Amino acid sequence: MKTLLLFVATALAEILGCYLPYLWLRQGRSIWLLLPAALSLSLFVWLLTLHATASGRVYAAYGGVYVAVALLWLWLVDQVRPTLWDGVGAGIALVGMAVIMFQPAR
């Protein structure tokens, strides 16, 4: 559970760090949004370092959680309801994350 929650926090930091520049570039919002965006992306990088396994494995598994969190963002922030296919894809991605992160020790 700790691993999953850490991945969720990491995904939120990355998505926010990318969303704020999007608001500036696409919606004409203040350039000052780049400051919290940089802080959020720095938090994203730091959170990825908190996992005890090899970085490549962390990055691969993180991708599955990112997919699911991005679809939640789509629903909650963009106000676009994910489709059944989005949910199936996120489920598959999460199963992939679990296989990678919770494999038996050698």
SSE layout:
Layout: H1 2-27, H2 34-48, H3 55-76, H4 84-101
Describe this entry's structure for a reader.
- By secondary structure, the chain is mostly helical.
- The protein has one domain (2-101).
- Helix content is 76%, strand content 0%.
- It has helices spanning 2-27, 34-48, 55-76, 84-101.
- The longest helix is centred in the N-terminal third of the chain and has 26 residues, at 2-27.
- The chain starts with a helix and ends in a 5-residue tail after the last helix.
Q: Count the E strands.
A: 0
* Large-scale geometry: flat
Number of structural units classed as domains: 1
Largest sheet: none
The first-to-last residue Cα distance is 21 Å
Range of helix content: over 70%
How much of the polypeptide forms β-strand, as a percent range?
under 5%
Overall pLDDT score = 92
> Low-confidence spans: pLDDT under 50, at least 5 residues?
none
Number of helices: 4
> Over all CA atoms, what is the radius of gyration?
15 Å
Quick description:
Helices cover 76% and strands 0% of the residues. The protein has helices at 2-27, 34-48, 55-76, 84-101.
Q: What labels would you give this structure?
A:
flat; single chain; 106 residues; mainly alpha
